């Protein structure tokens, strides 16, 4: 029964909402996209030199998906601080190849905020130590965070529709089991 002010859901409404959420999760887990992604991640991390062994279309899919996921999850700062930052050059090439020009421009902008004209180190420790956002004591910490937030917000608008780009890439290359 709802409370006097009507703020609480009825038991039936709560049960319905929980059921809908469970069904939505189950649909995601059953989707060809999810199944492919989990298998691809296993290839990368469970096999020695897994990333290097990926065929070119799978490598593109992996790089664009990781890039998009990292930035959507924690901004460009997260992309560079996590292992994904080690693939900066590969990600640049992947975004160029799939035609994600605006996302690429935003990646370059974030790189300039964090590394200026320096190359992005492959080594995570070296990469993080160069980033003004890594230590609050860094004199450019606040300025860099503010600038990155602006870049993040423009990326969140999804200027290149990366989800559709990934979908097209997968279907064109028969990456999902349903495409075979």
What are the defining features of this structure?
180 residues; mainly alpha; 9 helices; globular
Quick rundown:
Helices cover 69% and strands 0% of the residues. The protein has 180 residues and is mainly alpha-helical. Helix 4 (56-81) runs antiparallel to helix 8 and helix 6 (101-115) packs antiparallel against helix 8 (141-156).
Polypeptide structure, described:
With 180 residues, the chain is mainly alpha-helical. The chain has one domain (51-179). It is 69% helix and 0% strand. The chain has nine helices and no strands. The chain has helices at 11-30, 32-46, 50-53, 56-81, 88-98, 101-115, 124-130, 141-156, 162-172. α4 (56-81) runs antiparallel to α8 (141-156), α4 (56-81) packs antiparallel against α9 (162-172) and α6 runs antiparallel to α8 (141-156). The longest helix has 26 residues, at 56-81. The radius of gyration is 20 Å and the shape is globular. The chain starts with 10 loop residues before the first helix and ends in an 8-residue tail after the last helix.
């Amino acid at each position: 029964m709802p409370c006097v002010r009507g703020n609480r859901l009825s038991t039936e409404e709560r049960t319905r909402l929980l059921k809908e959420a469970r069904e939505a999760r189950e649909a995601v887990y059953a989707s060809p996209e999810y199944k492919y992604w989990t298998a691809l991640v296993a290839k990368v991390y469970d096999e020695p030199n897994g990333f290097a062994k990926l065929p070119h279309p799978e490598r593109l899919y992996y790089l664009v998906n990781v890039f998009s996921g990292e930035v959507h999850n924690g901004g460009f700062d997260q992309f560079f601080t996590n292992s994904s930052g080690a693939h900066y050059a590969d990600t640049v090439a992947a975004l160029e190849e799939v035609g994600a020009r605006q996302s690429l421009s935003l990646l370059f902008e974030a790189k300039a905020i964090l590394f200026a004209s320096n190359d992005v180190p492959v080594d995570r420790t070296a990469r993080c130590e160069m980033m003004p956002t890594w230590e609050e004591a860094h004199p450019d910490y606040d300025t860099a965070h503010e600038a990155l937030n602006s870049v993040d917000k423009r990326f969140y608008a999804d200027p290149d529709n990366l989800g559709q780009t990934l979908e097209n890439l997968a279907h064109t290359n028969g990456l999902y089991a349903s495409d075979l």
